[in-house]
C-alpha cells in the first residue's frame, strides 16, 4: 500500500513537471513579450549640469524610457547682449544667438550625457528609445535646411545604441516605431522626427515631410494595439503661442495648423483607438486634452525638462513672477484639477513623465503623470482605457459664436480680451512704468529749477 502511494505521488509530480515545462516552453517559443506596465519619458537634459532626477526615474522603475529630444544641448548659446562686439539682440544684432558646434564637440557632449551615473544605471534596468529636438539635432529651432543633420543623425543613433545594420541608420530622419507586450496587451510607440523635414517656421509648410507622412499613415493603419503612444518632441495639442504672442512664440504643431489637421484626420480615418501623445521642448510640464479632433479625447502629456525648467532660468524671487505668468496665460486645452502642485496646473521645475497601465483592473486603467525630482506627481490624470476607445463621439461639435468650450475651442478663438491678457498686462505695466519714470524726472527737474531760482534770489 505504502509504496503504491509513493509511486502515484511521484508520477503526479513528474506529470505536473512535464506539463509546466511544456507550457513555459510553448510560451517562450511563441515569443510572448513581457507585459509593460510602467513607461518613463523625459526631455531637455543639459549634459553639463547635475541630473539628480535620474534617481526618481530609477525609483519609478520603468521598463521603458523614452527620450523626447534635447537629450543633449549640442549647440552653442551666446549670452543676451545689447552692446559690445557680439550683439545678440536688438535691431543692431550682428551675430546669431545660437551656433552649431563641431562634430567633435557634439560627440564629446553625447559621451558626457551617456556617462552620467544616473542615466547609466537606468540603461541597465530599462530599455531606452528616443527621438530628437532642435538642440540635439544641432541648432536651436532648426528645420530641414540644417545641413549637419546627416552627421548628427548618426550621433543620436549611436547614443541610443541603434544596431549598426538598422534601417533607421539609412533613412532620412530618426522616426521609428516599436511594439511591446503580449498579444491583446500590446503597446505601440511611434516616435516622430519633427526636425529633419520641417519647413521654416511661419511657412505653414510641411512638418513631417512626405516620406514620414506615408510611413506614419502605414503605422497607424497597421495591426491594432491596445495602446498607441505617439512621441513628438514639440507639443501637439497645446498652442501656447496663440496666447503668448505677440510677446513671444514657441514651437509646436499649432504653428503648422494645416499639418496638425492632417495628423488628426489621419488618426480619425485610421479608426485606431487608444492613442495619446507625449511631448517635451517647452521647459515646463503640462497635460492637455483635445476632445473635438477625433472620436475620442486626445491627451498630450508634456514633460520638460529633466534639467531645464522655466523657473530655474531666473533668480529666486523672480520665479514667482514666472509662476504668476503661467497662471495668467489663458488656455483652453490644459487639464485642470485640484491635485496639481501649482494653481496653473503647469510645472516649471525639473520633471519627468510617468505612464502606468493597470492591466489587471477591470476596466484596464491608464495613469498619466508628470513627476518632480522626488518622484511625486505634480499633475496627472487617471482614466479607464475605454475612454480612448469610444469612436461614438461626434468630432464636429458646433459651438455658439462667441462662446468657448474647454478641450474643444482653439486658443485662437478665445475672445481677444482673454486671449491677449498677458500682452495687455505687459504693455499696460510698461506704460505705467514709463509714465512713472517721466513723472519722476519731471518732478526732479522742476524741484531743481525752483531751488535754483530761490538760490539766485537769495
Ligand atoms: C548647462 O550647464 C552648464 C553648467 O551648469 C552651464 O554652464 C550651461 O550654460 C548650461 N547650458 C544650457 C543650455 O543651459
Ligand atoms: C496657434 O497659434 C498661432 C499664433 O497665434 C496661430 O497662427 C495658429 O493658427 C494657431 N494654431 C491653431 C491650430 O490654432
UniProtKB/TrEMBL annotation:
Top-level taxon in the UniProt lineage: Eukaryota
Signal peptide stretch: 1-20
Transmembrane segments: 424-445
Residues covered by the PhoD-like phosphatase metallophosphatase domain: 43-293
Pfam families: PhoD
Alphabetically ordered keywords of this record: Membrane, Signal, Transmembrane, Transmembrane helix
PANTHER family noted in UniProt: CALCINEURIN-LIKE METALLO-PHOSPHOESTERASE SUPERFAMILY PROTEIN
Protein name, entry field: PhoD-like phosphatase metallophosphatase domain-containing protein
Amino acid at each position: 500500500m505504502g509504496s503504491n502511494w509513493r509511486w502515484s505521488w511521484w508520477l503526479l509530480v513528474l506529470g505536473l513537471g512535464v506539463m509546466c515545462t511544456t507550457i513555459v516552453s510553448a510560451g517562450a517559443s511563441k515569443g510572448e513579450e513581457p507585459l509593460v506596465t510602467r513607461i518613463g519619458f523625459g526631455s531637455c537634459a543639459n549634459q553639463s549640469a547635475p541630473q539628480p532626477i535620474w534617481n526618481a526615474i530609477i525609483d519609478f522603475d520603468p521598463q521603458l524610457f523614452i527620450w523626447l529630444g534635447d537629450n543633449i544641448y549640442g549647440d552653442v548659446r551666446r549670452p543676451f547682449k545689447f552692446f559690445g562686439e557680439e550683439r545678440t539682440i536688438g535691431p543692431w544684432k550682428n551675430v546669431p544667438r545660437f551656433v552649431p558646434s563641431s562634430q567633435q564637440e557634439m560627440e564629446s557632449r553625447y559621451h558626457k550625457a551617456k556617462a552620467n551615473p544616473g542615466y547609466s544605471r537606468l540603461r541597465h534596468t530599462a530599455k531606452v528609445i528616443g527621438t530628437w529636438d532642435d538642440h540635439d539635432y544641432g541648432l536651436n529651432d532648426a528645420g530641414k535646411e540644417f545641413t549637419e543633420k546627416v552627421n548628427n543623425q548618426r550621433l543620436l543613433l549611436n547614443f541610443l545604441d541603434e544596431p549598426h545594420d538598422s534601417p533607421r541608420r539609412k533613412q532620412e530622419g530618426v522616426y521609428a516605431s516599436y511594439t511591446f507586450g503580449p498579444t491583446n496587451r500590446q503597446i505601440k510607440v511611434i516616435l516622430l522626427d519633427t526636425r529633419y523635414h520641417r519647413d521654416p517656421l511661419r511657412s505653414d509648410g510641411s512638418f513631417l515631410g512626405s516620406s514620414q507622412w506615408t510611413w506614419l499613415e502605414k503605422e497607424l493603419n497597421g495591426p491594432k494595439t491596445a495602446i498607441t503612444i505617439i512621441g513628438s518632441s514639440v507639443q501637439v495639442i497645446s498652442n501656447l503661442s496663440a496666447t503668448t504672442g505677440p510677446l513671444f512664440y514657441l514651437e509646436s504643431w499649432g504653428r503648422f495648423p494645416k499639418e496638425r489637421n492632417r495628423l488628426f484626420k489621419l488618426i480619425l480615418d485610421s479608426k485606431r483607438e487608444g492613442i495619446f501623445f507625449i511631448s517635451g521642448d517647452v521647459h515646463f510640464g503640462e497635460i492637455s486634452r483635445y476632445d473635438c479632433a477625433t472620436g475620442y479625447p486626445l491627451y498630450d502629456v508634456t514633460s520638460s525638462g529633466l534639467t531645464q525648467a522655466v523657473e530655474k532660468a531666473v533668480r529666486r524671487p523672480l520665479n514667482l513672477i514666472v509662476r504668476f505668468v503661467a497662471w495668467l496665460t489663458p488656455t483652453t486645452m490644459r487639464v485642470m484639477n485640484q491635485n496639481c502642485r501649482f494653481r496653473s496646473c503647469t510645472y516649471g521645475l525639473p520633471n519627468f513623465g510617468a505612464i502606468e497601465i493597470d492591466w489587471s483592473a477591470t476596466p484596464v486603467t491608464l495613469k498619466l503623470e508628470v513627476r518632480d525630482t522626488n518622484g511625486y506627481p505634480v499633475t496627472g490624470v487617471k482614466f479607464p482605457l475605454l475612454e480612448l476607445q469610444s469612436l461614438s463621439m461626434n468630432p464636429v461639435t458646433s459651438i455658439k459664436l462667441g462662446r468657448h468650450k474647454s478641450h474643444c475651442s482653439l486658443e485662437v478663438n478665445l475672445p481677444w480680451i482673454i486671449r491677449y491678457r498677458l500682452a495687455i498686462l505687459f504693455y499696460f505695466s510698461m506704460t505705467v512704468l514709463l509714465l512713472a519714470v517721466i513723472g519722476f524726472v519731471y518732478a526732479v527737474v522742476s524741484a531743481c529749477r525752483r531751488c535754483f531760482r530761490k538760490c539766485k534770489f537769495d
